Amino acid sequence: MKRLLPVIAIAGFLFLGTAGAAALPAPDSGQAENILIFWTDGGSLKAATLMCVRSPREPIGIVAIPVEVRVKDRFAGGTVAEAYGELGRQGLTKCLADLFQVKIDSFFTIDQSTLDKTSQVIGPVLMEGNITTLADVFEGTYIDEAIDPQVEIRHLAERMTEPSVIVKVPQLVWIISSEVQTNLGLHSLISIYRAVEEQGPGILNKKALPWYEYYVNGCRYRVVPQDKWAQVLQSVISG
């Protein structure tokens, strides 16, 4: 079964790609930066994640957003995936910013084709005692049993900073810089890189939105209680 592992894992490659810029002055971290990360397959949305980055010593908050979740009256009762298809990235970003009650200016979009190329370059990855690939980790097919998303994202961050991956940085940077869509600036990437470099993967705090499920005319929908959007975000950034 596919897990909603956030596409945030790809940020691990950005950490590596900015390593050469580590000597630059530290960016101003006085203001939080909220980043929406989209995993797409052509014109369809496969997964979405909100990441909140503050100072290098504060937790990096990560909230997984199920694409089947309804955004209710903000989009005629449709789901996150449907909003992306009909309103586009900017329209969905506005919906989610309203729900999380935060300003979201940054985005990072990776398509399935780019993920497949990246996975091939990285090669085998050891996760939970299993030899697998990055693509299978994203899909959640590398293990049959449930795994704590917090544990999973930290383990993946550790794998992405191993020497066997670091030596492939030039190839990874080329793929990402030429195929990934993002408006993140160099200072933002340095801030993320330094936070993980200095504090380790334990600085990553991830939770999924709580939801309840129901069916309408045979279609499955998930609903997140209104107050939970901002509550979950606050819980991951407060540690």
Characterization of the model:
This protein has one domain: Aminopeptidase, CATH 3.40.630. It has nine helices and ten strands. It has helices at 11-17, 80-100, 112-122, 134-139, 149-160, 163-166, 169-179, 186-199, 228-237; strands at residues 33-41, 44-53, 60-65, 106-111, 125-127, 130-132, 181-182, 204-208, 212-216, 219-223. A hairpin with a 2-residue loop joins strand 5 (125-127) and strand 6 (130-132). Helix 1 (11-17) crosses helix 7. Residues 1-29 have low confidence and may be disordered.
How do the helices and strands line up, and which of them pair or pack?
Elements: H1 11-17, E1 33-41, E2 44-53, E3 60-65, H2 80-100, E4 106-111, H3 112-122, E5 125-127, E6 130-132, H4 134-139, H5 149-160, H6 163-166, H7 169-179, E7 181-182, H8 186-199, E8 204-208, E9 212-216, E10 219-223, H9 228-237
Parallel strand pairs: 1-4, 3-8
Antiparallel strand pairs: 1-2, 2-3, 4-7, 5-6, 9-10
